[in-house]
Amino acid sequence: MKSLEPLLRAVTLVGMVALAAGCAAPPAPVARAGATTAARTGGLLDPQFITAAAGNGRYEIQASRMAMYRAASPQVRSYAQMLVDHHTRARNELMALVRDRGMRLPGVLPRGKHAKLHRLASATEDEFDRTYIRLVGIEDHQADIALFERASREARDPELRAWAGKTLPTLRSHLEAARTLNAAMH
Length: 186
What we know:
mainly alpha, Ferritin, 7 helices, disordered N terminus
């Protein structure tokens, strides 16, 4: 019976992730351009950035909620709580920003993020903390920083550009904290 416990735990977590992905928010179309002159003249960058930022944030919140329960290290659980708090606040700010422009945030995770959640859910107890920090804390935050740096320079909507710039220091602090945790685990 003891040998089934890890399998049952993994199956339960995968089910929780699937349920959370389906119930986390009402279905919404991808952010659509054309609601304002700024969005129309912004080409594809602004709606693409909004879609990517919202989807990546949603994924990092889901992955971090999983880490709050699965992580063995109190430091990793604390880091996960910080990400949930910060990414939820950023998502709420972005939601208000796009709502003012007649757009809605996407209700689905970006391509490839379901597979990452599955990798986390199926990680053994011994490897979960390192996997979470490597995937979410380092790899995903490096990509987030590149995305937000570009938007802070090139987004056509000045408020969106300012929001991206304002969010960058938080993303950078997440990456540095993850690197510190990663170094401590090795």
